[in-house]
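Hi R.,

As promised, here are both runs. First protein below:
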Amino acid sequence: SSTYGKGTSLGVTVAYEGLTLGAYGAERENKNPTAAAQVSDEFNGSWFVNYNFGPVSVGYSKAYKAVLLSDAIGLTTATTISDYDQTNMSIAFAASDDLSVSYERETSEANRLNDTSTEQESASVQVAYTMGGMTLAVAHSSHDNNGYVVGANTDQTVLAVTMAF
């Protein structure tokens, strides 16, 4: 039998001139609460703000997710993740109709039942140049504590060429 029952979600977005705001929330009911299972429902939600002024766009968002836990199926230990807390920030600049540059940073924290946490962090710089039907793009990203594992760090660079015929 499924642990989840009915769910409820609500989202709203408001835009005015260059400003856009939004929020979303969802809850799924724990339909089989027992002494061995988390009584609370699963919840996730987010909010964001984006502002465009001239060639610049700036964005910020927060997200949260509390997961449903259950000892009844042997998944809950002191190191089980109970919730995630995420923050994203970005800025983009359109230098011309053909050239754009952007930067994004994301942090996500996994909080465990034993009151410890691990922060996963990613940062990326992207540049794109368009010539007619062809776009050249390069992105360099660094990721620290991938999968919420301390020391699991990687860097990557991607070069892309796309063409429209």
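And here is the second one, sequence first, then its structure tokens:
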Amino acid sequence: MKNIPLHWKIIIGLILGVIWAILSSFLGWSKFTIDWINPFGVIFINLLKLIAIPLVLFSIIKGIADLKDINSLGKIGIKTLGAYLVTTVIAISVGLGIVNISKPGEYVDQEQRVLNRLSYELWVQETNGVEIKDGKNYLNDPQYSHLKEVAIANYHGSDIEDIGVLAKVKSAKDRKEDGPLQILVDVVPSNIFFALGSNSLMLQIIFFGLFFGAVMLMIDEDKAKPVFDFVVGSNEIFLKMVDVVMKAAPFFVFALLAGKISEMAGDDPGKVLEIFLGLGTYSLAVIIGLGLLILVIYPLIVHFFVKGISYKDFFKGIGEAQALAFSTSSSAATLPVTMECVNEKLGVSKKITSFVLPIGATVNMDGTSLYISVAVVFLAQFHLIDLSFAQQLTIVLTATLASIGASAVPSAGLIMMIMVLQSVGLNPAWIAIIFPVDRILDMLRTVVNVTGDATVSTVIASAEGELGEKNL
């Protein structure tokens, strides 16, 4: 087993988790699975949440501070960051469009979705600073009264009489409508330590990281160096934490999947099929979105902004980098090959590749951003939550800013997923639902990330006259 790559071990853990959940459902062992196996999955989620906030903060500060001298970068720096921002917003918009049209979360049995919704409302009651997103209250709706006890028992894992939550349903409070610029007000923290201690103020943490990193570039390098070294060291420690946690991921994944399916399906094997039908439609929505970016949008960008590189030339030039990205699930690990392909095969100068591509590996996560936008809306649909247009715009903003701090390592998208779910007031533990298919989608979205980096570097090179002869 030692020689088996980690991703194969995770896939084995996934398969064993599904098999165990099915056996559990058939043999009536669901309670045993929930009580004795599922807690290890909860530990996994808690470890990821533990790492999420400091990793995001230090990754963002390091990414900005790595620019060294923001003034000397001039128009190339502005064009690069602007181009990456545009492609990220495009990716998120494509994702939101597909998930709102296809509605993959609605392919699950309606009764199961109602139970999911009731569990969501119970979670809201127990979570400070969070309100029901769409203002509806299923717990107080008489037509769902027959499902309340089931939902409460599943959620708390104990007798309802011991909980006593039926009489304590949270009443909705009238609030004045927020002004059009309230979202900007909410981004700027008044107390960063308060923001760091809250799971629902991620946007403020991202803003602080961007502000801190930018100001570091404005002070004397000798004075900034100790702080920069601390940030770099801390960032490496938290990245190593992710690596350590992921070494035990096969076991955690087994427990997570077995427990989550057992919670949702109970002792009814038919519900297991319904759950995977929902995951299948969700995965298809993500794959369609990623395919549109790779096969349509990026080639169109190159076609309109770069002369002399055809559709065929573009993919032939970056094919090696795409293959490596798929196998490693890491745009950072793929970076040397990406730079070589873009420089030698597409003719982009080393001046551009050495600047644009490393930044892209840090701040440009188009595939991850699309994946997050689809996943968050899917999870809302899965729990019968109607997200408004304004709430989905919050997802766009959060996912765009989060992509700056999305470390270019495997499974970093899960960390970002937790952050975005928290920022829009949804339960971060829901990542357990989509985790079974995360590894395969992670490989695909890394291909998109690398392709997006190559696209932007080619466009910047063309705009700056730094595009030479191709060597295909």
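A quick note on the second one: The chain is about 75% helix and 0% strand. Let me know what you think.

Best,
J.
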